[in-house]
Amino acid sequence: MKQKLIYTFWVFCFLCFHLGLIAQSAGIKGRVIDSDTKKPLPFVNIVYDDNNKGLTSDIDGCFLIKDKKEITFLKFSYVGYYPVMISKHDLENDSLITVKMEVKTFNINEVKVFPDENPAHRIINKVVENRNINNPENLSSYSYTSYHKMYFTADIENRHRLSSDSTNLDSLKKEPGFNRAKKFLDSQHLFMMETISERKYKRPGKINENVLATRVSGFKEPSFIMLATQMQSFSFYNDMITLMESRYVNPISRGSTNRYFFNIEDTTISASGDTVYSISFRPKKGKNFEGLKGVFNINTHGYAIQNVIAEPIEQVGMMNVKIQQNYDLIDNKTWFPKELNTDIIFSDIVRAEAGKQKMVLVGVGKSYITDIEVNKELRNEAFSAIEVEVDESAFYKNDTIWNQYRKDSLSRQELRTYESIDSIGKEHKFDFKLKLFKTLSTGYIPFHFIDIQVLSLLDFNVYEGFRPGFGLRTNNKISEYFSVGGYTAYGFNDKQWKFGASLNIKIAPRQEVKLGFSYKNDVEESSGYQFFEEKEGLNSTEAYRYFFINDMTYKTSYTGNVEFRTLKHWKINLFANSTVRKNTSDYYFTNENIISEPFTSYHFQEAGIQLKFAPNESKAYVAGELLTTNPVSSPVLFVNFIKGFKNQKSDFEYAKLEVKFNINFLTKTFGRTYIQMVGAKVIGNMPYFMLYNGHGSYYDFTVETANSFATMRMNEFLSDEFVSLHFRQDFGSLIFKTKNFKPDIVLATSIGFGQLHKPTLHNGIDFKTMEKGFYESGVMINSIYKQLGFMGYGFGVFYRYSSYSYSNNSDNFAYKLTLTFKL
Q: Which of 22, 477, 601, 737 has its CA 20 to 30 A from that of 727?
């Protein structure tokens, strides 16, 4: 027994001795936070010996120094904050520390005077030289798994510090309203969602992302997802950086040293012996472009970005975005993003009040990337037109997969968010309301097993005047595979009823294979054209031209069609129809010594193909529903080919070829350029309403309509073949802006040529032909007045010149109200 006690004693001493050694050599873990807001500070420079050896905190403000013996002191430095110094003596009994850094109370922009070249330029130029090597999008392939978390909350205290509001925070804390709001926000977020996905990439531009699990507070089947790549550019090496669909000039693009001011803020030595430069950047004074401000940490191993913090120099639209990216060195040769953060601060349009204090909505997104593999062989069969796929099972994953990929377990605040918002969502039927909202966004109001078409309730154009009506279709409550619909409407100007019916069958949703049949007794624009699947969003004003149409033709038509996607980026619509078109004016058509009477009806039978080629359009397949994730992709090519047949039930034999090409692109110096080219040719003789009217949009004072001739009168010209070019250069606020007035300047030019081979066939109407070329140019000053943070009102003036200008010069001008939307 005594020997056992002695043995136990020596074992105890041995353990104590070794534990002492371990304690002496144990590392230091810590987290750096803002002393006021308690938010983590990413990429803080940390130096721990006299040789400037150090590291940076990660994207969550955390750091680890493995061996205490290496530490002489700890020095923390961060742009915009006072430095913090901790002595070795203060660390003797600590292995886990929290470092609080205080924001500088004032920040004077120092005037830096360099004797020769700015020393930061040498480093930045090296980064620019190596950016193609370090850009992960230039790898032959890569794959990874990502965990993404996004939550929304309301910011009180941090908002106060950034605001010009002079209200004292201490006095606010005495108010019951402020304290109730703070207590609620400290216990839970307003909204939260998580996503786990596997992403594969193969150069050039092939992407496949499979969502393994997704969860959204308040919803059982959210049918929407949020991915890190939707909020910011995955790589910080391209010429333009995308933040929430807005694009900015990259501070490491070519020529950036002429646009940006760079300053070396700090220098450290990494554990591997490489130098890390902390360099701040902001646009130079007097340089007017869409720029960013922030801080790089540049590692001399490949002169690559180790991490970056960036945000727009000024807010655009209703939100401000701040991003952080952290890169890791894979296999000691490839820098690859491993952490992405996005902070979204909404403007004062989205706010509430807590006592006297304003609360602004804030979104925080965090993405963590693991299982990274680069330059591995990926088969082409792994990629398709569908870039993102979410199986229905992704909404019902258990904790096993979540615990595998979450960096940390959910906090009490996050758990409370799910518990509270899920309960509210169940009580208030969030899933049902989401489906309702989605249906409304397509232009329909769901009511039991039918959807009511919103635009059918009241519409307007010059020819019909106000057009009230009623349209409906069956929805998924009857069948997911087919829909039956119909409508009726009445025009107060033409005093005619219109009606129609349709049957649409979904054969293969993933391939977008659909079969359709329709009947219409309605009107359509005379001498117009229409391409396949054109749906203009808020950023386009093309749809406004419909309101000005003053010449329409009545038609009764039976149509059958089948549409499908093929070769990844091509979408095809095959159709056939039998139509009776009735002339509604004194026009009469003369052909082969036969003179028709005014108000004659003409019979047509035709078949055709419509093509759409959108190489940069991306699709997502979410729980059985196919969605377009970037509906305004560029470039896009549209082609129509229509063949008319003459027989006992059809009066004309003809062929029509119509082509449209859209492209837009952004440059660093001139802003965004928009170009549209349209051309068409008719082979055969047909009445005027089957030809082309020039696509004018002139009225005395109207809303500006993109990709039309602003000074051309409606139906002023008639052509059986034509080509037109619409060009506009949107400089944004690059040309002119002040602190409180930032209008967008847009220059526009449109050119059209046309020909009518047999004008004598068309009688009873006035028209011109465009052989000599129609020219007009204009300038628009958009967003002179802004409303709700994203709606802009402006003014435009256009002038027509050359052969078709009027002798009375004032008639050559067109004045337009402009409407723009910047979300």
A: 737
Per-residue pLDDT of 723-770, as tens digits, reads 999 999 998 887 777 777 888 999 999 999 999 999 999 998 999 999
- Amino acid identity for residue 420 in this structure: S
Q: Given the structure tokens 């004008």, which residue do they identify? A: 759
CA distances from 616 to 503, 715, 823 (A): 31, 35, 22
Over the stretch 77-89, which tens digit does the pLDDT of each residue have? 988 899 999 988 8
Residue 560, class by beta-carbon neighbours within 10 Å (0-12 exposed, 13-18 middle, 19+ buried)? middle
Residues 471 and 456: beta-carbon distance below 8 Å:
yes
Q: Which helix (H) or strand (E) holds 606?
A: strand 601-613
Residue 688's closest CA among 813, 526, 452? 526
Structure pTM? Answer: 0.84
Q: Give the C-alpha separation, 77 to 266, whole Å.
A: 8
- Is the pLDDT reported for residue 317 higher than 90? no
How far out from the chain centre does Cα 795 lie? 26
Question: Do 281 and 253 meet the contact criterion of CB atoms below 8 Å apart?
Answer: no
User: In which element (H, E) is residue 25 found?
Assistant: helix 2-25
CA distances to 118, 191, 367 from 114, rounded to whole Å, are 6, 49, 39
Backbone angles phi, psi at 30, to 5 degrees: -165, 175
Nearest-CA neighbor of 605 among 661, 648, 546? Answer: 648
CB 504 within 8 A of CB 482: yes
**DSSP conformational letter for 95:** S
What lies within 8 Å, CB to CB, of 619 at 6+ separation is: 385, 386, 387, 388, 626, 627, 628, 629
**Distance between CA 125 and CA 113 in Å, rounded?**
19
